[in-house]
Amino acid sequence: MSDKPNIILLAVDCLRSDRALGAGRSGRTPNIDALAARGASLPNVFVENSITPPAFASLLTGRYAARHGVRGMVGQRLASSATTMAEVLAGNGYHTYAEATGPLHPILGLDRGFERYDYRLQSRYYFTPWGDQLLSRFKNREFTPPYFVLVHFWEAHVPVQVRPEYDSAAFGAAPYDRALSGLDAYLGRLLETVGEDNLVILTGDHGECLGERPPPRTLLPYFLNKLGLPPAGPDPMRSIDDVTELVARQPLLHHFTEEIAGALRRGEARISLGRRWPLLGKMLRIGWTRYSIQSRNGRFLKIFANLEQKITDTRLLLAVLGGRTSTAQRLLIRNSLREHVLQHGYHIYDYLQRVPVIMAKRGLFRPGARFEAEMRQVDLLPTLIDALALNPGPGSFDGLSFFPELSRGRGENRPAFLEARGGAQADDMFLIRGVRRDRKKVAFAPFEPGAPLEFYDLKDDPAETANLAGREGGAAAALREEAEAIASALSDGDGGRLSPRENLEIIDRLRSLGYL
User: Fold this and answer.
1) Which of 124, 186, 260, 472 has a 20 to 30 A CA-CA distance from 247?
2) Model confidence, pTM
3) How many domains does the structure of the chain reveal?
4) How far apart are CA 97 and CA 104, in angstroms?
5) What is the pLDDT of residues 131-143, one digit of tens each?
6) Co-location of 247 and 130 in the same domain
7) Which neighbouring-strand residues pair with 153?
8) Intra-chain end-to-end CA distance of the chain, in Å
9) How far apart are CA 442 and CA 246, in angstroms?
10) Which residues lie below 8 Å from residue 499, measured CB to CB, with a gap of 6+?
């Protein structure tokens, strides 16, 4: 019998920290509370990017997106140099399993290191047969110990899934909270099934917008205007199931997006004739898959349903036919941003970037300990390695273990590097970058000289409603310089554009600032 503890990583898509661990939350989450009571909870963990694929890639590799390679929803695979959590654990004798959904298709490379990577469509929620099947797998000991099981839940993602028995104010003020209350009940069944001798980690990949609105004259309104998108309406809670299913069902979307982005990175203003026809063929197959999904869901025959999407798709086809690389990329980003405006991925506000982490294991973490210091998502894998005294293998990580701080019960805030790409992976058309340090935050668009600068004092303005960039230009400039420095050090992942000497200088500086 191995002395290694089994590990269950429960990752809830769009899990906001304030809704899971906040004092004023309205949802009923007794099982999450009980897990926190028998382990250590960290309510202030910040992700780099609030889009699911790059956020999960950072969670699983302990690296920033520029070094793990998955920068957006589609188009780029996990870098060959990135070592995953599953690979580390497999190298230490663990059997590794994943239950993934949403856009986490194996084509992204996130299945690396898993013996079994079960990918399901997002419509297979905990209250469908899949939920009972998962419980049965644990009950019937189908996972070979010592095991690592990653379970990805989709119920809190738009459109949130509220079961009828939880659809009342008693279970939350908003649909999101009611969905979380229902999921909490299932988590209770799951935690009872697996018992208390395992290491259980509960976290989210990123946060979610639940009615918050950016201040006027800030970056989101600027980009919406530039891309010809209307100002965000009052109700962002529309279904994006069709989009997510398209990403899951049609791998050609990844290839198509990467080819357009690759042409731009190579400085190709025109798509060559030899590549246009294969691209058009891919577009037609992608379009057929999209409309098949809409037809099956009863939306295709409604002539005005998704009309804007159909117009944009036609414009994209004409752009590819004419070989206009920049126009094609602009339309792809426009599509992606429209799908995520006032959901997530469109900015670096705290409600999008802050997630909870709960780690519970008898004898490993102090029961009921609450650690308020600010950590980063990329710190979680190094922490797991440190806590279990694992051999990290050949992997290199951008994060740092916070296990010593958990053991001491105190620690310093760590600065967080933040990015948003609106769902896309392009660097030069839509990119918001920033830093959060000592409860100050800067946000800027590095490739848009005319875009506004944002600066917030999070101590006095935790909701980020008052942009102080005009009044505190010096502090904003200093934080922007930090963000630019770390972006330069991380640029281009495996290779980078800097000389070895320049890289060493910047890495030393970033280490002194607390990023690495």
Assistant:
1) 186
2) 0.89
3) 2
4) 14
5) 999 999 999 999 9
6) no
7) 12
8) 37
9) 35
10) none
